[in-house]
Design brief:
Layout: H1 10-21, H2 27-32, H3 37-59
Length: about 80
């Protein structure tokens, strides 16, 4: 859970989540809420990670298959030869 174990009130979390929808900088909610930038940054990071993980979980339902692939783009050995 995102809010679990946090000392920050829920209304602050919800306000920060609301401001994320409008794609404002982290500095805006930190000034509005009179919080340190670092604390606001950690809140936004947790919210973004949870949103991202929920989106990934929603996409990868059912059986997912992957083939073995070897990518050597940009890798060079000594002498300019590809591996």
């Amino acid at each position: 859970m995102v809010f679990e174990g946090s000392r920050i009130p829920l209304r602050v979390w919800f306000f920060t989540a609301l401001t994320l929808q409008y794609k404002v900088s982290i500095l805006e909610p930190s000034k509005t809420l009179k919080m340190y930038y670092d604390a606001t940054y950690r809140m936004v990071k947790k919210l973004r990670e949870s949103i991202y993980l929920n989106q990934i979980r929603g996409r990868l339902k059912g059986i997912v298959e992957m083939d073995k692939t070897y990518v050597a783009a940009g890798l060079r050995l000594k002498g300019g030869q590809a591996p």
